[in-house]
Amino acid sequence: MTTELTRLSAADLAGRIHARDTTAVEVTQAHLDRIAAVDRAVHAFLYVDADAALAAAAAVDNRLRCGDPPASPLAGVPLALKDVFATVDMPTTCGSRILQGWRPPYDATVTRRLREAGVVILGKTNMDEFAMGSSTENSAYGPTRNPWDLDRVPGGSGGGSAAAVAAFQVPLAIGTDTGGSIRQPSAVTGTVGVKPTYGGVSRYGLVAFSSSLDQGGPVARTVLDAALLHEVIGGYDALDSTSIDAPVPPVAQAARAGAAGDLAGVRVGVVSQFRGEGYQPGVLRAFDVAVSRLRELGAHVIEVSCRSFDHALPAYYLISPSECSSNLARFDGMRYGLRVGDDSSRSAEEVMSLTREAGFGPEVKRRIMLGTYALSAGYYDAYYGQAQRVRTLIIRDFAAAFERVDVLVSPTAPTTAFRLGERVGDPLAMYLSDLCTIPVNLAGNAALSVPAGLSDDDGLPVGLQVMAPALADDRAYRVAAAYEVARNAADGPLAHRVPDLTEDRLPPPSIAEVVGR
Q1: How many domains does the chain have?
Q2: What is the per-residue pLDDT across 29-71, written as a single tens digit (0 to 9) for each?
Q3: Which pLDDT score is estimated for 513?
Q4: Domain that holds residue 239
Q5: Which of 30, 61, 98, 104 has its CA 20 to 30 Å from the CA of residue 425?
Q6: 57, 59, 39: which is closest to 48 by C-alpha?
Q7: How many other β-carbons are positioned within 10 Å of the β-carbon of residue 256?
Q8: 3-class SS at 155?
Q9: Which residues, 6+ apart, have CB-to-CB distance to 48 below 8 Å?
Q10: What is the CATH number of the domain that holds 174?
Q11: Residue pair 279/415 in contact by the 8 Å Cβ criterion
Q12: What is the pLDDT of residue 505?
C-alpha cells in the first residue's frame, strides 16, 4: 500500500483522500517512509518535520470526517518546500551557513496559501546557496543527487525539490526560478516544472536573490498536478509590490483540455537560436521527436528567430549579480543568522567582514563581487545599463514572436544531467546550463518544462520547454498536457523508469564534508 500511494499523482491522491478511500495521514506516512528509505542516497531534504506533517494531515481527515468540503483540490496531498521560503515552524537556511538554523518570525505568502489549502508540507528541500547555481552542489549542506543516476547532479538551484518529486518522496514541490532554477532541474530529473508569469505568484517571504527575476512555481510529475498547485499558490498579494492584480489564468482547465490531445489551430514556434554548438546530440534528437509529436497533434509548427536571445546569458549574469549584491547586503551578522568574531575588541565592520567570509560560499561571493563591480561608479552604464537595454530587446523579440505564434518551444537544457563535480571548477560551463531558460526570466513571461523522453546518448531525461506570453500561462499548460498524453501513450510515463533507489544507498554527507564546503 505504501509503495502504491507514493507512485500516484497528486490529483489521484487527492481524489482518494476526498472520497475517503484512504486518509491524508496514511498518504503522509507513506511519503515519510519513502523519505526515510531513500533520502540518504538522494539528499533532497534539509529538514523534515514528521510530527507537524502528520498533524496537518490529521486536520484534513477530521474536516472530511465532519462532512466539510476539502479546503482545496489538493487538500491532504504532501509537498516539499524549497528552503528559500519563510516558515515559522521550520528553519529557512537558503542552503547557506549564514542562515543555519534561522527560523523566520512569519510565513511566506506561498507557505500560508499552502497551509490554508490543506496541503501537507513535509519539509524543506536542498538548494544551491541563495538559489545561485545550476547543480545544487553549492549548498553548504552537501549536494543533492539525481535519482536517475546518483553520480549526476539534479540541476539547480532547485535540485532538492525536483529530486524529491522524481524519487517519489513527494508528489508535489515548490521551487523558485530566477534563470531556470525550476525548469532546468525538472528537465534533468524527468519532472514537470513551471515558471509562472512574473508577479503571478507572490514573492513575499521568498528570500530574494534577484528581485526583478525571482519567481516561485510548482514542481510535479504531471502537467495537471502542476496546474492544480499553480492555482493554489497563485494570485494577487498586497504584501508584494510586484504582484499582478489579475485572476490566475485557468491553468487546470487548460491542462484538462490539452489532455484531450487536440492542438488543431495552435501555432507553435521553434526558436532557431536554441540548437547547434554546445547542445548534446541526444537532446536535440529528443527535441525533434517532440516537435514531430506536436505536429501529429494538429499544431502548426514554424521556425522563429529571436536574435537577441544570443545575448541573454551575458545580460543575465550582469543583472542578477547586481541585484544579488544589493539584496545580500542585509546578511551582515548584526541582526540575525551567523555572527563571527563578536567580541569587544572588534568593530562592527570587522564582525560583518568575518561573518560574510565564513557564512557565504564561493559562488555567492563571486556573484556579489561581479554585481558590486557592475554597479560601481564609472561602470554602471557600460555593464548594468547595457544589460538592461539587452533585456528590452529580448522583450521585443518575444512580443514579435508571439504575434506570429501562440507558444514557443525549445529544449529546456542543452544537455542531460552532468556528473557531480564536472563543472564545479568551470563557472562558465555551469552557467551555460541555463542557456535556454534565461530569456523567459528577463522578459517576465511564463514557461514550463515537461519530460520529453530519454536521450539516446546516455539514457537520461530530456525536457521540452514551452513558453507563453505573460498572463497566458494556460497556453503553455494546454500544449504541454497534450504532448504529455501523446508521449506517455507512445513510451509510457517517464517517472516509472526511475531506478529503485532503495537498492543503492549512499551514506549521508559527513560533518567534515559539510563544514568544509
Answers
A1: 1
A2: 999 999 999 999 999 999 999 999 999 999 999 999 999 999 9
A3: 39
A4: 2-309+391-504
A5: 98
A6: 39
A7: 17
A8: coil
A9: 32, 35, 39, 122, 123
A10: 3.90.1300.10
A11: yes
A12: 52
- The answer to whether residue 400 sits within a structural domain is yes
Q: 515 in a domain, yes or no?
A: no
Three-state secondary-structure class, residue 234? strand
Which residues, in sequence order, are CB contacts of 351 under 8 Å at separation 6+? 333, 334, 339, 340, 341, 342
Establish if 343 belongs to a structural domain. no
Q: Which three cell numbers stand for residue 373?
A: 563591480
CA dist 299 and 399 (Å) reads: 20
Q: Which residues contact 416 (CB under 8 A, 6 or more apart)?
A: 188, 280, 282, 283, 455, 457, 458, 460, 461, 462
Question: Going by C-beta distance under 8 Å and a sequence separation of 6 or more, which residues neighbour residue 4?
Answer: none
Nearest to 72 by CA among 232, 199, 212: 232
Is there a contact between 107 and 87 (Cβ–Cβ < 8 Å)?
Answer: yes
| Neighbour tally for 20: CB within 10 Å | 10
Residues 6+ apart with CB under 8 A from 469: 398, 402, 445, 446, 475
Q: What is the pTM of this model?
A: 0.95
Q: What is the pLDDT of residue 504?
A: 54
Grid cell, residue 303, equals 521556425
What's the rounded Cα separation, in Å, for the pair 374 and 380? 6
Is there a domain that residue 513 lies in? Answer: no
Residue 438 and residue 316 in contact, taking contact as beta carbons nearer than 8 Å: yes
DSSP helix/strand/coil, 288: helix
Q: How many CA atoms lie within 13 A of 389 on its CB side?
A: 7
Output the pLDDT for position 1: 54
Residue tagged 489551430 (cell numbers): 265
As to burial, measured by CB atoms within 10 angstroms (0-12 exposed, 13-18 middle, 19+ buried), residue 514 is middle
CA atoms within 13 A on the CB side of 90: 28
Cell of 221: 510529475
> Which residues form the catalytic set?
82, 157, 181
Q: Splitting the chain (517 residues) into consecutive groups of 10 residues, what average pLDDT does each group show? A: 86 98 98 96 98 98 98 98 98 97 96 98 98 97 97 98 98 98 98 98 98 98 98 98 98 97 96 93 98 98 97 97 94 87 81 90 95 91 95 98 98 98 93 96 98 96 98 98 96 81 56 36
Strands lying side by side in the sheet with 446-454: 45-48, 120-125, 78-82, 172-176, 216-220, 192-195, 446-454, 461-468, 407-411, 267-271, 300-304
CA torsion sign for 59, 60, 64, 69 is positive
Radius of gyration of the chain (CA): 22
- 126 DSSP β-pair partners: none
Residue 219 · residue 165 · CB < 8 Å: yes
State the Cα–Cα distance between residues 227 and 220, nearest whole angstrom. 9
Cell 536554441 locates to 274
**389, burial (CB in 10 Å: exposed 0-12, middle 13-18, buried 19+):** exposed
Q: Which has the closest alpha carbon to 160: 196, 122, 195?
A: 122
Q: CA-CA distance, 187 to 173, in Å (whole number)? A: 15
Q: For residues 423 and 428, what is the distance between their CA atoms, to the nearest angstrom?
A: 9
